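Our preliminary data section would be incomplete without showing what the modeling component actually yields. Below, a chain of 291 amino acids is followed by its predicted structure, encoded as tokens that our downstream tools consume directly.
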Amino acid sequence: MDLLKKGMNEDVWNMDWTTIGCLGRAGAKKQVKARIISKAGGIWACAGLKDAIEGCSAAFGMLLEAKNTLEDGQRFKAGQVVMYWAGSARMVLAMERSALNLAQYACGIATATAELTDIVARTWKKYSKTAKTSAPRVTATRKTLPFYRDLAIHSVVCGGGRSHRVNLAGGVLVKENHIAAAGGIAGAVKGARAAAPHGLKIEVEVRNQIELQQAVEAGADAVLLDNFKAAQVKKAIVFLKTAAPGVLVEASGGINDRNIQSFVLPGVDVISCGGLTHSVRAVDFTLLVDG
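Predicted structure:
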């Protein structure tokens, strides 16, 4: 509700001269019905939009009722009705764009995530009978717009993905700048372990085989293989089987629908994809008023 309300206030909905003029004197009382229709296929991630619409319209004193036709995580096709609205004509017209923007953003993330998780599932079939580990989990990153993280992560989950660290307090990830500031991987890991709450794993981002070895020697619980090519990832897995078999392995950096298949390997536990949330391709919707 908060994002929708902020969006409408940003749009200065109460000074929508177009709607006020077109509806005339009857505008405050006129009631209409409307439908949101998808213009492309995708994954629904907006079940919560119903409560946001109803709560926001009530807060503004012009009531709307909304009805979802889908549950979060369900697929929809182009031309499918995904929501019905009924109530104040003025509120429908004022809220239209803000609501559609949120739906397009959320479903874009969910749809892109589902594409990646589907590729992972298909690729893993060739390993499923012999691998001693499960298929890699697809996760998002913290590369989200300010204040949109909860919606972005929710959308990733709707698409079959997982969250990474939701925020800085949610985990320890020692990155290159931490290492530079601390004077090296060993010092950074030692300091992070001393400061972090009990139970949090210490993950270290590494850029090459030398840093990987240093992270293992420093006692890292997990390693993020940053911008490793698939061949380098395979080499790292071989090393870790002997040197640190319990370390969690994450592949990250430039991974997308065109190359993720190469990183679906036994020994890779996590594949994180910043593009899921920093380069969102919206799913287009339209709202039509029925009168």
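The mean pLDDT is 96. The radius of gyration is 23 Å. Preliminary results of this kind motivate Aim 1 of the renewal.
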